[in-house]
Amino acid sequence: MLERSGFTDVQVGPACDTFGGAGGEGNARAFDVYGYPFLARRRR
């Protein structure tokens, strides 16, 4: 999806727990929801 949006050199990092301590933490755990950092370059 990022490449189709005009980005190149896309790198995706490891899964991160972004819901620890949040109100929706229980739901996130039930559905194995994680955040992923990414780095990409915009084509010119």
Automatic annotation (TrEMBL):
Superkingdom, natural source: Bacteria
Protein name in the entry: Uncharacterized protein
The species this protein was found in: Pseudonocardia asaccharolytica DSM 44247 = NBRC 16224
Phylogenetic lineage: Bacteria, Bacillati, Actinomycetota, Actinomycetes, Pseudonocardiales
